[in-house]
Each structure stands twice: as structure tokens, then as C-alpha cells.
Amino acid sequence: MAKIFRQAVMAVILNDEGKVLIGYSPRDRSYKFPQGGLEPKEDLICGIKRELREELDYHLDEQYILSIYEEKINYPFPPDCHPVWMGQELSIVKIRFDHTTNIIPQDDEFDELHWILPHELPNFETEYRAQAYWRALEIAGLI
């Protein structure tokens, strides 16, 4: 069976200073945006809410969603990384940070979080996701 791209969603969370949230993932040994695969028949809003709760204990109120973009990004996984998926195709959700909720890294998804200016992204090792992440920031109008 041929491998396909996993349908996924990622959050570009923007604070009042124009910075975006990235985190270091000890599991992936690189920096990444909050993101994850969609469950079967799960819509983007339900998916991003679930992923943010699972990864950061962040409870997203839909009023903070700024945009959901039609254009998607994708990246291939490293060879032999996953038995089913060849990579991820991500929908991008731009979110204004809600200061009334917490961001607390959960399990091994993230162990450190950083608010960075969008143009600083290349200073952080995002490995095989780098080009896709840069494109996501372009789509979101941040660079």
C-alpha cells in the first residue's frame, strides 16, 4: 500500500507583541508549532481545540481564531519514520493568544516554549519542517 500524507492541523498562536509560539519537542528532537493529525471525520476547529488541549492544556475559545487558511502546507517525514504516513499536510489556524488561559506543556510533546518574532524562526532547528513552516508564516501574513 502506498503511503499518503496525514491530514493534520497546526496553530500559529500570535501574542500582543506580534510573536508566535513554538516549542521544543524532546520526542521529535526539534522545534515545532503546536500541531497534530486530525481524527477521522474531525473538522479543523475541533481538531485544533483538541490538539491544543492535549499538547499545551490550552483551552481555545473560538472567538480567538483569527483565520483558517485554505492553502495548506506539507512536509515529508524522514525515511522510514512512519509505517503508514509519508508526511503531513497541515491546515493552518491563526490564533490570537488568550491571556486568560494557561499554556502548560503536556507529556513529551513540548518541554520548553518560546515566543519568537516570525522572522526569527530560522534560528530554531525545525529540521524537515523548516520550509513548510516558513510558508505557513507567509500564508498567515506574518513575514
UniProtKB/TrEMBL annotation:
The keyword RNA-binding does not apply. It holds the Pfam family NUDIX. This is NUDIX domain-containing protein. Its cofactor is Mg(2+). It comes from Namhaeicola litoreus. The keyword Hydrolase applies. Keywords: Hydrolase. It comes from the Bacteria. Residues 4-138 form the Nudix hydrolase domain.
